[in-house]
Amino acid sequence: METCAEDEVQVKLLGGSTSPFVLRVRIALALKGIHYEFIEETMRPKSDLLLQSNPVHKKIPVLIHNGKPVCESMIIVQYIEEAWDNKAPNLIPKDPHDRAIARFWAAFIDDKLGPCIRGVFRGVGDEKQKQVEESVANFLVLEEALRTNPCFSGKLYFGGDEIGFVDIALGGWLAFVKALEKGTDSVLIDAEKMPLLSAWMDRFCEADGVKEVMPDPVKLVEFICATRVKFASLAAAN
Amino acid sequence: MATEGEKRQVKLLGATLSPFVVRVRIALALKGIDYEFIQENLKTKSELLLQSNPVYKQIPVLVHNGKPVCESMIIVQYIEEAWSNKARNLIPKDPYDRAIARFWAAFIDNKIFPSLRGVFTGQGEQLQKAVEDSVTNFLLIEEALRTNQCFAGKAYFGGDQIGLVDIALGGMSTFIKAVEKATETILIDPKKMPLLTAWMHRFCKSDGVKEVMPDPVKHAEYISARRATMISPPTAN
């Protein structure tokens, strides 16, 4: 269809198949029904297009819309919402206070939770255990928010009836977290201690728009295990 | 009176020297919003602070009609959106320009501030590395001012007027200068960073900003005193 082809040419996403940050963007694009060209970045070496589009950080994802690059996953998600604001669903609330709450929790996920999850990924022994404990503590904060925050409690998603900004911020991590749990033999999202978060997780992963873009869990576990072996041998060599 | 009513409706929990609080004060000043400033003592945090920001227990917190908003740049965006009809606009209208503004505000929070904090708290080799990182980061900003189409040739990152990125970086101005003084280092070198230097000078003198900027002398004294306590370990825990 003409519209789809036009869209596809105008929108490119530089990304990889294992990155939770790329997954966030793919979910947002899928929910908005935006067609795009996915350009797989091997990262070794980084492509010229990546280096030109994101000279400051040289990282994926990068969204290129009509030749103009947008970087940083949650900034890209806000951009997608605003550049296609006439396309349902809306990913970000309209009310300024609700937006501030959504941004707050997305920032919590990036500033507090993300680093701990990465710490489990890279860590060994005691350090890994510490990062597992901190990850669990941060997930418990989210469980508490689901339970008591008037914006979220009793609703299907952090975004209300539909997936929104915070769902995408956290949801992008889910496949990686599940694979990490398998690959490191640890429990980060405990169904007994975090019933609301677990239920949300199942609901999110089954949702239209999300399930189609989720990475292959088997491949993700393989990737995580292989990379952890590399980290361990690098650490041993030092 | 509308102003008195408005003042009750808008409270800012903060401390005068915090660069994050300064950011919010600048945004409120530029929008002409009256508010009650509640000075927080960070050693004994108030009930209001603990209730309003239970996750981080940090300032600034804006409380608007009883509802708290936390995290300085989130507060600035909230101020823009809740008072969107009030000139001036702090955030561009165009989605792409917004994305660029948010990118650089995030760079300031995720790269510049941590390296500054490293200088503030660092000693010896750690200090040296933090200084190098800070200079590298500031040079990236200088480069952006020079070559990024959104910024090049303009008075501010926001164009003709102060915007989101100006507030994000400019709020740190006296903190940066205080840290330079306390560590006897140069982080923003006028020779290597002429555009950034000119921008900072322009920013600090502008209406709305100059009235809320901390006293640089007081800020420098405070930072030096804090560093002195870090260098000599406390005698009792």
Can you describe this structure?
The complex is a heterodimer of chains A (238) and B (237). Chain A is an alpha+beta fold. Chain A is 60% helix and 7% strand. The longest helix of chain A is centred in the middle third of the chain and has 27 residues, at 96-122. The termini of chain A are far apart. A four-stranded mixed beta sheet of chain A has the order 2-1-3-4. With 237 residues, chain B is α+β, with helices and mostly antiparallel strands. Chain B has ten helices and four strands; from the N terminus they run αβαβαββααααααα. A four-stranded mixed beta sheet of chain B has the order 2-1-3-4. In chain B, helix 2 (19-31) packs antiparallel against helix 7. The longest helix of chain B is centred in the middle third of the chain and has 27 residues, at 95-121. The N and C termini of chain B lie far apart (50 Å). The mean pLDDT of chain B is 94. Chain A binds chain B through residues 56, 65, 68, 70-72, 75-76, 78-79, 82-83, 96-97, 99-100, 103-104, 107-108, 141, and chain B through 55, 64, 67, 69-71, 74-75, 77-78, 81-82, 95-96, 98-99, 102-103, 106-107, 140.
Could you give a quick summary of the protein structure above?
The complex is a heterodimer of chains A (238) and B (237). By secondary structure, chain A is an alpha+beta fold.
Describe the secondary-structure layout:
The complex is a heterodimer of chains A (238) and B (237).
Chain A: H1 2-10, E1 11-15, H2 20-32, E2 37-40, H3 48-53, E3 62-65, E4 68-71, H4 73-83, H5 96-122, H6 125-148, H7 165-184, H8 195-206, H9 217-237
Parallel strand pairs in A: 1-2
Antiparallel strand pairs in A: 1-3, 3-4
Chain B: H1 2-9, E1 10-14, H2 19-31, E2 36-39, H3 47-52, E3 61-64, E4 67-70, H4 72-82, H5 95-121, H6 124-147, H7 164-170, H8 173-183, H9 194-205, H10 216-231
Parallel strand pairs in B: 1-2
Antiparallel strand pairs in B: 1-3, 3-4
Helix pairs in contact in B: 2-4, 2-7, 5-6, 5-7, 8-10
